[in-house]
């Protein structure tokens, strides 16, 4: 399972969290600004090659793509029918590439490293009454939630297969969204149970 992978000592593991996240943002902005389908496909291919190149098991890349497949199918079909195939290809390749790259960052970066980075970035916000620790936690949870898509997809697929359904992967979209919402709710309850929201309750 993607979320249980433990960072090792590969070349990408040794890169600090800051440069990795900055590179992710730069690639994302470049893909959106350039807005070209073949560039998006090239970045997607590079993201796939990145996994074995830095010592990440390829199954994590393919697992992430399987989790995305229902969404990619819906986007691709919709854009092809009501737009053009170039736009469909570009959007699907952009989404897949960015998810793969974000997943690679989460797999090679420890949570405490992300928290420290986000906390340093959020310190200036303390001047206007914002808690840097909370901002860091929210950002770290957002980045680390990428692997949850595969877990949600796997759960939805098991229910899909248990009902004897086949050949209609678009039916997985709603169950995956529901599963992600449940995971988010459970994460929120766990944070409250650990006293994360204690300061907010005291201030009311």
Commentary on this structure:
There is one protein chain. This protein has 204 residues and is mainly alpha-helical. It is 74% helix and 0% strand. α2 packs parallel to α4, α3 packs antiparallel against α4 and α3 crosses α7. It starts with 16 loop residues before the first helix and ends with a helix. Residues 1-7 and 199-204 have low confidence and may be disordered.
Short key terms for the protein model shown above:
single chain, 204 residues, mainly alpha, 9 helices, disordered N terminus
Could you give a short description of this structure?
This protein is mostly helical. The chain is built from 9 helices and no strands.
Write the SSE topology.
Layout: H1 17-34, H2 37-53, H3 58-82, H4 85-107, H5 111-122, H6 132-144, H7 148-162, H8 173-193, H9 198-203
Helix pairs in contact: 1-4, 2-4, 3-4, 3-7, 5-6, 7-8
Q: How large is the count of helical segments?
A: 9
Report the strand count. 0
- The SSE string, one letter per element, is HHHHHHHHH
Structural shape: globular
Helical amount: over 70%
Distance between the termini: 41 Å
